[in-house]
Amino acid sequence: MNTVKLMAVFAENRPGQTARVTEILARANINIRCFTVASSGAFGVMKLMVNDPVRACQALQQEGFAATLTDVLAVEMADEPGALHRVAEGLATQHINLANTTGFVANQRAILVLEVENPAQVGEVLKQQGLHVLTQAEIMAI
Amino acid sequence: MDRGSLEALQLKRLRDTVQKLERVPFYHAKFEKSGLKPEDIKSTADIRRLPFTTAADLRENYPDGLLAVSRDEVVRLHTSSGTTGKPKALFFSRRDVDTAAELLARAFCMTGVTRRDVFQNMMSYGLFTGGLMMHYGAEKVGCMVIPSGPGTSERQLMLMQDFGTTVVHVTPSYAFYFADFLEKKGIDPRRQLALRKAFVGAEPYTEETRRKIEAALGVDVYNSYGLTEMNGPGVAFECEGKCGLHVWEDNFVMEIINPATGEPVGDGQTGELVLTSINREAMPLLRYRTRDLSSIIPEPCACGRTHRRLHRITGRSDDMLIVRGVNVFPQQIERVLMSIPQIGRNYLILLEGLDDMTVKVELSPSAFDGQVERLEELQNQVAEKLRAELWVRPKVDLVASGSLPVTEGKAKRVIDKRSL
Question: Where is A72: in which H helix or E strand?
Fold first, then answer.
């Protein structure tokens, strides 16, 4: 199953933390394709999709950040009303829960990023619904 | 009682206590080693020839190595938390419980509490002596005691309104919290409640805090001092003069020492308070190192009582913190953190507001899997483990590895910004 690498970075929930991360990535010449922050009280977790996940992760770890890579699914949907609904409903019928999910539209292509426990199984479900699950190279080429 | 008779009684009781303690192997061995005999105690000043007893001694002799009577004589067990996993266990005979109640009853009468008062005890019951012993003392005076315990301000208020509570026993932090609660409810305690006195204790606090509580609740606040290792709360109390705490010297011999050398310091000078219980049956302790810092006020009190006074406790000679009335040692926190592999050994204790404790801990980079939920679970797990060890649940904040100071000791590990 095609998966893409999503980088997660642990940071304290205070001003300047995102800037520290982005500064390190900029210096390492890393291009960011997608960026979210989930905060919970005193801390937050940044999630980034980048052009070179392994090197980005190493650059942050060298600066003392807790950073890790996970495999997630990037699904292409039609950029039209009801597209997300069809995906959500398809997953619901298979009792698949959507927890950490984000989406973006770039160059008229709508991409849904799904963090799931079992990417292979969920990827199959999406494929059966006629959806395309992107590779790492494809996501970088958007 | 005049000073001469009081000192004669102290001496008699001290000698009886030493004699009794010859039967306790721990003290017996110490007396043997120094060649001391009960007859050698010829004046209360000879107390300096007796060995100290420390918190470590209580732990090493846990559970009942320092018990001076048979188990059958014991009617009550209380414990006090210590720096290690095991608490200090303290035993009370029936007479010990009666005596503790008697000393508290004295303290209450000293401030004008009578059998017409309604005494609401807003302190924790259970292993902590502060709740139960004060309850017994107030009953001894003949007050109607409402054992409300801490928490649920709504219910505290209902009890106060429905039963006309006149006296409360409360920690300073809860007194502030409750005053805030009344203000939010729009209740003026002066006009709408019958409160007139508050016994505030279990945590050290300043003169300024006393005045603030008095102003907020419209009561007279009296300071109290005690510790589980002695009788519990009834060691020293303020009279109506509110100018220092009278130590019940017919029950305790007090000394102030230099904590580094163990030598006595002069009256009026600050040092570590050392107490000997001379009227206990089940578990008298000789020269117990309280670690609390205070000084003796040698001058007679305007009230005429001959029991000398102590200044309010100004601090600790060790790292102990008191949070919500519970003793907390930074070492306890350290030990809990070391048992959790996902977090580092460094920590920072932040005490803020009235009595809120936050423990900042570092997340080990290898334990990070990118899931917010897992980090939240970890925070809860750490808070729960700390609660089980400390008896107080702190808020736990995960911070980045390497972001906390690495030096040892309370000075760097504890930031106390509480308003007490």
Answer: strand A67-77
